[in-house]
Amino acid sequence: MSRIQATFAALAAQHRKALIPFITAGDPSPEMTVPLMHALVAGGANILELGVPFSDPMAEGPVIQRACERALKHGVGIRDVLGYVRAFRQTNSTTPVVLMGYANPIEHMGQQAFITAALEAGVDGTIVVDYPPEECEEFSAMMKAASLDVIFLLAPTSTDERIQQVAKVGSGFSYYVSLKGVTGAANIDIGEVAARIAAIRQHVKLPIGVGFGIRDAATAKAIGTFADAVVIGSRIIQFLEETPPAQAVETVQAFIAGIRSALDE
How far out from the chain centre does Cα 232 lie? Predict the structure, then answer.
């Protein structure tokens, strides 16, 4: 059982939902990434989603695009991201870390080389936006052979065939994109999302996390009534943009603690 699977099993036994915050590695500065990871855990995060900076992050809205640009200006690449995970693991051996990014850095590194390095660093899984499940069976098999999870996105427009393919090759959990658009968009229709999750569960037996557009405790709590996990990213990045660096870690931890409290109510 992977660390991600064990985390969801433990939470289910406690009748609790997973909180999965996202930050972009290297933003707002490389030296803040590991302290932010620890702060998210201290605030109540169960799984960390760490963005790999990329020059063309097609799924991201303006907020996370800016985070990628800042990280790239610092020269942060995929090997640096693995280094942050390795440093995080020096004092945290239990919290799963999922890398979210795009195919290009992995392909440039080589799939097997990436998997070997990710396993060594302490990574638990990946979300690769432009690895469609229909073309990803070999990569998924290689990841699973290394006890790493491959998490796929599902959207409001996903067909039954796509959902079944995700059920076939995905592991860890499935990530439902709550709206048509990019990260950070607003106006989630809670009822519509709940109905889609119920339909997806007919095919997918993995835990289901919901992200894109979750910005506050009330929305997170509403999503948590039917999803297994809540993913929140753009609002955290906004805090990092708006807060002086000296207060950023404390501010992010307090925000996540508020989300955690709402989910546990």
Answer: 8
pLDDT, position 180: 62
The overall pTM is greater than 0.90 = yes
Task: Please list, in sequence order, all residues whose beta carbon lies within 8 angstroms of the beta carbon of residue 80, skipping any fewer than 6 positions away.
Answer: 25, 26, 30
Give Cα 128 distance to the centre of its chain.
10
**Distance between CA atoms of residues 261 and 217, nearest Å:** 8
Q: Is 75 left (phi over 0), alpha (psi -120 to 50) or beta?
A: left
Residues taking part in catalysis: 49, 60
Nearest to 27 by CA among 243, 257, 196: 243
CA–CA gap between residue 77 and residue 83 (Å, rounded) = 10
Closest alpha carbon to 259 in 229, 97, 240, 38: 229
Residue 253 structure tokens: 């931890």
**Please, what are the averages of pLDDT over each run of 10 residues along the chain (265 residues)?**
95 97 97 98 98 84 91 96 98 98 95 98 96 91 96 93 93 89 62 94 96 91 96 94 94 98 95
Please tell me the distance from the alpha carbon of residue 33 to that of residue 256, in angstroms, as a whole number.
Answer: 16
Distance CA 166, CA 168 (A): 5
Q: Where are the domains of the chain?
A: 3-260
CATH top-level class of 3-260: alpha beta
Beta bridge partners of 18: 229
pLDDT at 184: 46
